[in-house]
Amino acid sequence: MDDFFAARSQMALSLGFHIIFACIGMVMPFFMAVAHYKWLRTGNEVYRNLTKAWSKGVAIFFATGAVSGTVLSFELGLLWPVFMEHAGPIFGMPFSLEGTAFFIEAIALGFFLYGWNRFNAWFHWFTGVVVGISGLVSGILVVAANAWMNSPAGFDYVNGEYLNIDPIKAMFNDAWFSQALHMSIAAFVATGFAVAGIHALMMLKGKNVAFHAKAFRIAAAFGAVAAILQPISGDISAKDVARRQPAKLAAMEAHFHTEEKAPLIIGGIPDMQEKKVNYAIKIPGGLSFLAHGDFNAEVTGLDKIPEENQPPVAVTHYAFQIMVGLGVVMMIIALLYFLALWKKKQWLQKRWLLRLFVIATPMGFIAIEAGWTVTEVGRQPWIINGIMRTADAVTPMPGIVYSFYIFTAVYLSLSFIVAFLLYRQIRMVGKLYDHSSEPSKAI
Amino acid sequence: MLYVVIVFLWTAILLYLLLGGADFGAGIIEFFTSRKNRGRTRRTMYQAIGPVWEANHMWLIITIVILFVGFPSIYATMSVYLHIPLTAMLLGIIARGTAFVFRHYDAVKDDMQKLYNRIFIYSSVITPLFLGIIAASTVSRQIDLQAQDFLSAYVFSWLNGFSVAVGLFTVCICGFLAAVFIIGETDSEADRQFFTRKAKWMIISAVLCGVLVFTASYIENIPLVDWVFGKPAGILAITAASLSLPFLWYGLTHGKAIIIRLLAGFQVCMILFAATYRHFPNIVLLKHGGYLSLIEHQGQEKTIEALAWALLIGSIFILPALFYLLYSFEKKKPGEA
């Protein structure tokens, strides 16, 4: 492994690790706020205990997200100093605002976690809501900074110099809205399905069913609504990418040849030598329609992109397929769930519906990782699209491979410990949070 | 507007040293506590820092964001030449933050606690050690932009007697701040005496490490004495800090929690002032006489302006909330974590 690849891998690892904790940290507060609200309104203790149980999880995830985020703010410079030297003053605006949002989140979390029985009950509830809102704002700002790398704006690039910097224009670049929307909804889908899946599993096992059923309903509602909205935001993103980054779209779809009535390619194995995709399902005109809203439109293929500016096709294509595929599966589960809620109440008592949610537990997060792979790998070889190459941005320090190994070891052990802690939390629900001790009955 | 940004940068560093430092200090005190007293130390510390620890570490993020937005070439140079100590510090931050949360939120209290404790204690010492090393390296004139080999570019840039001495000094300061802070939080007379003893030990160690810093600077030809005492402002700051020391000792002996906190904060503020004012606006001194300056190496005007506004507007939101947080958890009421 050479140092450049090691630097890219370390960055990918750090982002991939952080994103999971960041999503949970920004979405769970909303679930808690609902449970907390129900406790304050109904006085049903199960809701209070549920809020407390979830807040323990959130404290663990938030802290892990906060430290891995701190690491990232340094890693940008440690791994990509040339990039930061030029990009920092241009796309730094969302980061400076994010500092505020994140600070408020940490303060509000202090109030929320340690504020039980200390403050007015509604003030305490409100601090929980502030954690969620400021977390969401943080997420949107950071994504806006990433969007700038895809869609650089707010400066003039003249003879290798970055002139006339306008940080506000840079923040509101062309890609910020579609990316931020897609990511925010994705966070709700992933966290909603993950949490609902875990509680569904506990219901199937017949443990503390009343407690887990309430938790399941809140998480599933958020996840299901978001899963149904996500395809709409995906469509906005696809049209946006087609317009701004034709090379990325071509890689996502393994679309080798520029053509009108371009087919939508589902699955398949891209053959780089022959420039074709084997074993794929092709929907005629599908890609033209999705990218440009017209079945006959011309879609730029990789043949129009100079070879040295092409992103890796196979990785981008597979990642895109995984993301879309999982998104569709979750959308179908969400539709079934709403059908059950409104028309087929008897389904809610069926084990198969819960089983579906259990199976879907990791899907949202796998889709998020795949989606970020599409965004980041699909932008290669650029770190600033069309302006600076990733290879030119990397640190001159040799031996990054070792740094990569160390961080891999650290993040792997942290993942194990967090999973272990979560397992223990869930196992202790009966003892700590659910005293109703109803006779355990499985659904 | 540049000066607004510089004031925020300096304040963020100071607050990180004070609040984040006290926070690291909690682990350092635990490190220097005998096994039988550790449980007690841990409980008192946790009650005091639990609600605020995460906010305390935000000052580091603010510092780093100001650097990379406003002074990108300074950030880039430090990132390249101080890569190794920065990575060590980051690993410390990861280990410490997660161990702290894991040990309090693990639903089952068993032998895993020993592991969390060990990680927390060691990383609490290592992180400020490297923070001090990084700070010292910016002025020790060992960063060599022309260096050809790995060792002189990436290792000797930070590994020298002076930097390590400043690192140790930082550890003592953090421990001292934590002990001083905790004295006001204790419930019993026995605890108060215990932490007072700790605070006194930490003062003595800090003074000894201070001597070590000056000795190392003398050996390595760093004109620290001239920086600190060369101008009236520096002499004044150090004199004020030294003169307040007996008052602090008195306050410690007689249990005046507020006075000793204020004095401790004042001393750290004076030390930071004396250490930085002489090179201002230079923030990084390089080998062969070069330097990186907050004025010459600032970002473009529009960036600085936007950054200043972001910081000003941000502080309208942050400061009242932060004060209310610190104030609320000062009033001791029964609560559950």
Low-confidence stretches of chain A: 437-443
User: In order across it, which strands form the biggest sheet of chain B?
Assistant: 1-2
SS content category of chain A: mainly alpha
The radius of gyration computed from the alpha-carbon positions of chain B, rounded to a whole number of angstroms, is 20 Å
Q: Which pair of chains forms the biggest interface, and how many residues does each contribute?
A: A-B, 70 and 67 residues
Q: Could you say which structural class the secondary elements and strand pairing of chain B correspond to?
A: mainly alpha
The average pLDDT of chain A is 90
User: How would you characterize the largest beta sheet of chain B?
Assistant: 2 strands, antiparallel
Which oligomerization state do the chains in this entry correspond to? Answer: heterodimer
Helix content percent band of chain A:
over 70%
Keywords:
heterodimer, A: 443 residues, mainly alpha, two-stranded antiparallel sheet, 10 strands, 71% helix, globular, B: 337 residues, two-stranded antiparallel ribbon, 14 helices, disordered C terminus, oxidoreductase activity, acting on diphenols and related substances as donors, oxygen as acceptor (chain B), cell membrane (chain B), Cyt-d_oxidase_su2 (chain B), electron transfer activity (chain B)
